[in-house]
Amino acid sequence: TRIARFKGENLRLYSKLELKPHARLNLIVGSNAAGKTTLLEGLYILGRARSFRATDQGELAGDQGRWWHLFAELAGDR
Prior knowledge:
Order of helices and strands: EEHE
Mean pLDDT: 88
Shape: globular
């Protein structure tokens, strides 16, 4: 099973994000403070139901203070 699509809203600096990862290899690159770690944090939250950075869920909303949402669509390897 793999993630076929990953979506989120109001997660730290992202008001909206969507990722359709390649089935085999994905490289995440960008300048400092571009959101690379936030993207990985969102994926981690989906798998572990907790953040590796934040101790309070309110920290994940960033400056907006809005509710954040994450969604993943899975694809099975058959």
